[in-house]
Structure formats: structure tokens, C-alpha cells
Design goal:
Radius of gyration: 30 Å
Structural class: mainly alpha
Number of strands: 2
Shape: extended
Strand order of the largest sheet: 1-2
Number of helices: 10
């Protein structure tokens, strides 16, 4: 009984609210042997409980109290501030930038870190500091095939746009319907 109590109190508050229900489920794509290691995927019920708890006032006040701790490292403080700002929602930036701009951010920061800190990059590219941090942290680089595919799609869109614009263009004015031509001839420009 003592081991159960230690396990029960060590779980986060959102997990304690579920009682004895199953917290984790095995991935459905592969059969798991009975002695397999604990899977890492939360059940739908557990994920809902976690999301609900993160949006609760108790969680928000607990995070605000934790922010008052002077011993917190800068990254821990930013992480808690971001959780408070998002209110338990997932990260969804308001503005998304092009891959080429992301490459410029990475290049400027790697080549000139003193001249281009995160704050200056965020001001220059008009995105949040958190977005710049995430861009610099990410290791994703598009393959050459994917880059070529994007460029081909972009060129196709430009061609389609120009073609549509030309087909919907107003008919060119003839000399007989031109107001300026009538006025030059001395007629009325009705």
C-alpha cells in the first residue's frame, strides 16, 4: 500500500484526477508483447484530462507562483511564461515565414551572433522571439527534391495567376469609345 501511495502522489495532478484508469496505451500499428516496456502515448482520456488541467485556474496560479522562484534558470522561466501565455493550447504562431527567411535567420545568427541576437532578429523579421528561438533550435532542412518541387509549384502558380489576369482583363478601348478622342474631335464626352 505504501508503494501505491508514493506512486499516486508522484503523478501530476491531472493524472491523479483520472483515478486508477489507464494512463498510457500501446501504439496500435505494432503488436506489443506482454512484457514490453511502458508505451509513451497518452490515452485520449488522459490527454483530455491533462489539457483541461493545464487550462484550469489552479494550474495557472501554480505556474505564476513558480515564476516568483528566483532560482529558476532563464529557459525554465521562458517555458513557464509561454505556458501561461498559451493557456494550455499548442504552439501556433500568428505569422509564418518562408523557408528562405528561416535560412537567413540561421545564417545571420551563426555568422554574426553578437550583431544579430534573438531580439534583433525578431524585430528585423517581425516575428516573436519565441519563433526565432524555435527556428534556431530546429534541425530541419528541406531536401533538394522538396525545394525543387516547391519552386516548380510556385512558378506554376505565377503562370496560372498571369493567365487568369489576362483572360479577365477589360477589353481595350477603341478610338470611337475613347473619351479623350471625342473631346479632341470636338464632340461631347458623355
Amino acid at each position: 500500500m505504501h508503494a501505491f501511495r508514493a506512486f499516486h502522489t508522484a503523478r501530476p495532478a491531472w493524472a491523479r484526477s483520472l483515478g486508477k484508469s489507464v494512463l498510457y496505451e500501446a501504439p496500435t500499428d505494432a503488436p506489443q508483447p506482454p512484457d514490453a516496456a511502458k508505451p509513451t502515448t497518452l490515452t485520449a482520456k488522459a490527454q483530455t484530462a491533462k489539457d483541461k488541467w493545464l487550462r484550469s485556474e489552479a494550474a495557472q496560479s501554480r505556474m505564476r507562483d513558480r515564476l516568483k522562484d528566483a532560482s529558476l534558470a532563464g529557459w525554465q522561466r521562458r517555458k513557464i511564461e509561454l505556458k501561461l501565455k498559451l493557456g494550455g493550447e499548442k504552439w501556433a504562431p500568428e505569422k509564418k515565414i518562408a523557408t528562405s527567411s528561416m535560412e537567413k535567420i540561421r545564417l545571420l545568427n551563426s555568422e554574426f551572433p553578437q550583431e544579430w541576437p534573438i531580439k534583433r532578429l525578431s524585430e528585423q523579421f517581425k516575428i516573436s522571439q519565441e519563433s526565432v528561438r524555435r527556428i534556431l533550435k530546429s534541425k530541419f532542412r528541406a531536401s533538394q527534391a522538396r525545394t525543387d518541387e516547391r519552386e516548380q509549384h510556385r512558378q506554376q502558380q505565377i503562370h496560372t495567376f498571369k493567365k487568369a489576369r489576362l483572360s479577365h482583363a477589360p477589353a481595350p478601348q477603341t478610338r470611337a469609345t475613347d473619351k479623350g478622342a471625342r473631346q479632341r474631335r470636338g464632340g461631347s464626352a458623355v
